[in-house]
Amino acid sequence: MRLERALLVFGKDWREVRRNWEVILPITLVPLIFSVILPAIFFILPGSVGGSTSIGGFEALIRNMPGSVQAELAGMSSLQVMTYILVLYFFAPFFLIIPVMASSVIASDSFAGEKERKTIEGLLATPLTDGELLLGKILVSFVPSMIVTFLSFTAYCASVDFFGYGLFGRLLLPNLSWLMLVLGLAPVVSLAAIGLTVIVSARVRGFREAQQISVLLILPILGLLFAQAAGVLIFGPTMILILTGLFVVVDIVVFRIGLGLFQREEILSQTR
Amino acid sequence: MPAIETVGLVKRFGSLAAVDGLSFEVEAGEIFGLLGPNGSGKTTTIRMLSCLIAPTEGQASVGGHDIRRDPLRVREIVGVLTENPSLYERLTAYENMEFFARAYGVADEAARAARIREVLEFFELWERRGERVGTYSKGMKQKLAIARAIVHSPEVLFLDEPTAGLDPKASKDIRDMMERLSRQEKHTILLCTHNLEDAERLCSHVMIINKGKSIVAGTTDELRRKIAGPPKLEVGLIKVTEQIVRAAEASENVRAVEVNGANTKLMIDVDDPDSSTPYVVKRIVDAGGLVRSVQLVEPSLEEAYLKLVKEAAA
Fold first, then answer.
1. pTM score of the predicted model
2. Which residues of B touch A1 (CB under 8 A)?
3. What is the DSSP string of B229-298?
4. CATH superfamily ID and name for B4-226
5. Do B52 and A20 touch (CB under 8 A)?
6. pLDDT tens digit sequence for A175-199
7. Which of A16, A117, A127 is nearest residue B75 as measured by Cβ atoms?
8. Which ipTM value was assigned to this complex?
């Protein structure tokens, strides 16, 4: 496999993607909401969640916090506790939704979109190998989704620290858990989403069909969000490490299946 | 060594044999026409020969490379125009050409730029190279798709309906291009077409296929003669009378006489037309016929094709 050939596919696809508002709009708008608008609302309108500054709804979450976190909460006011838990824990799963959403939208366009736009046959007729094509298309789904995630994280840190400094008198982010989440867990979750989109794209005929199915990938992450809200699971360093290991295994499995399906004949047989 | 050689090529999709034991050879520099109705197996044949799909049975080589053992090398030396232009509409024409030139291994930047300019100028697209392909007309897209297929100067070119949907001027440009590629640059072209005029004008050999099987193959002249018979004698007259028809029918070697047009033309089916013509014409003149023109009319490939496909369907 020649890397420059894979980068050629990456470059071509990236030019196409950045001229497609159907892709650009969701991958910029959703991160903007999660990283800037929502944190700003929480800080500017304290008590907007639940309508009061009471910590009643967070009791289960607080009870399940590791001792080190509970120690951090000691001495904080109700507003500080609520804000602290919201911005440092409750928001964490959203930063898994961003790479999943971005990579699955781009991968749907890149794999199933080629079929829909009837460009796939010309591409498959070139002397690019299956591996070069697949790597190029994985890169174009992975790199922008990671850039969006890192930029969102930077914006989120800036928002939280900007708005939260007055309330806490110190900078809250970045911390170890968030760095592990964004630099470790988010990339492996993104790769799993790409692998699953490759599998879905091999079976469907168009971009929207692939995208609609890929949206289902967000459901398990919403499950994590609700599990955390119920106090069942906390995004601390240990849990992030376990999830990262788990997703590495998921990545290996889905990519093996995806590689098996990424065959010229298989792809062409699904082309209209 | 033939540029393309297939032996008993078969492609099955489930129980359907899309291509069923196809064998043919195409010499280097030749334009070979693959004719047949929709669903006859033309596109599947091109897909197998360009290594997009694998044959179920049989063997084939392109440019001396086995399509099963060396698909990558085959893809390097062929250019393919499929039924769809396969162009990226959000990219400009130049970006499309650049991508495909690099994908086909035209590594040298200066040589690549010169070749892209050459083919875009040939198709009169150079001035609009910076525009997105999505803004192009159907004819422009088709020209660009052919430009894309030849950007790496392939040894063998597979063209599936290259003049479909084009205006007469664009169709002529593409026919001229195919002739030039074949005669001057010695590229081998496998042309799938419904356009029998194209096949007749360009192809040295043609094969008519139906339901994945070869019905007949040969030069266009051989096919015409074999299927639609020898040339007919066409005699143009001021007016055709019953007496003239009877005189023509009574002539030696004449098998049948038809009156065509507005009673001004006789189509005469005659054995050995070269030697018989003067005597048939003399009989017509003696019967009072005022002759305006005399010519031998070759049966068209279209007649031959339609006859064959009809027979195969029956």
1. 0.83
2. none
3. -S-EEEEEES---HHHHHHHHTSTTEEEEEEETTTTEEEEEESSHHHHHHHHHHHHHHTT--EEEEEEEP
4. P-loop containing nucleotide triphosphate hydrolases (3.40.50.300)
5. no
6. 999 999 999 999 999 999 998 888 8
7. A127
8. 0.85
